[in-house]
Amino acid sequence: MANLRDIRRRIKSVKNTAQITRAMQLVAAAKMKKAQDQALGGREYAKQLTQMLFNMRKNFGEESHPLLEHRQGGRELVLVISTDKGLCGPINTNLARKLKLQTSPDAHFVTVGRKLRTMAEKLGIKVIADFTVKDPVPFSQARPIAKFITQQFLDGNYDKVSIAFTSFVNTLRQESEVVTLLPIQGHRQGEEQAFEEIGAGFKVEEHENDAACDYIFEPSPAGVLGAILPLYVNYEVFQALMEARASEHSARMVAMKSATDNAKKFIKELTLEYNKLRQGAITSELLEITTAMKAME
Q1: What is the pLDDT of residues 117-164, one digit of tens each?
Q2: DSSP letters for 149-160
Q3: CATH number for the domain harbouring residue 57
Q4: Cβ of 9: how many Cβ atoms within 10 Å?
């Protein structure tokens, strides 16, 4: 009977766990829909902004603005966007693995999200700043992050700024990405631009008619670039935050659904084992009663 009591306790414990994972699954599903709509809704603006800058490439060069300047040094700053909470599958582990493969060993980090910040501190990696972002992601909270990393680049502290995040593909698939944020790519033909990785994976279109790309700048090319390029960097950071948040909620919903399904399967197995032991105990008692009755005859 002691075994039966243990199994009953285990069944009760697994049922309680299944209720918790089911509740977390429903909460993640509700947040996932909002986050996915936000991420998908921002991709068209990202595409048009990228296309415009790509079309403008013939009107200016690297010397037109410091954010376009390609440098020879190897000092790298990486903006890492991870999750604040766990129970969302392997997305943080995959992102950490991607970082190890595609960033320099002596790179410095700016973190958004507690998970990889904690991991970086344990590994002794230098984190120069940390930011917290609400859910859903407001554009106003992307500005300070973009401003900080842009200023670090303009001050000459780093020669390259990258952004590491988890790109949302669909509910069942999220991909870790590390792309160059600064200097801004995409202003020279044939270069990949970060928005081509941060969103829908689109490619900018070439215009055969050069007149379509012949812009007139007012008041000056420098003035226009001074207004557009910071907006461009701000929106890249914002879009990456939205992609990462949509990936987080999608991964958590899938992980909690898998945990709930596994708990239900485990409950069935425990119930079957419980019934077998109970039936064995009943059979044993009947045999004892039968034997005693025969002994009394």
Answers
A1: 888 878 778 899 999 998 888 999 999 999 999 999 999 899 999 999
A2: HHHHHHTTS-SE
A3: 3.40.1380.10
A4: 10
Residue 276 lies in a domain: no
- Residue 139 in 3-state DSSP? helix
Residue from 240, 93, 101 nearest 164 by CA: 240
Distance CA 146, CA 231 (A): 9
For residues 237 and 145, is the Cβ–Cβ distance under 8 A? yes
- Helices 221-296, 91-102: axis angle to 10 degrees equals 130
15, 65, 70, 116, 169 from 161: Cα distances, Å: 48, 16, 11, 18, 24
pTM of the model: 0.82
| Domain encompassing residue 219 | 26-252
Number of domains observed in the structure of the chain: 1
**Which value, to the nearest 10 degrees, does the dihedral of the CA atoms of residues 64, 65, 71, 75 take?**
180
- Cite the active site residues: 88
**Rg of the chain in Å (alpha carbons):** 28
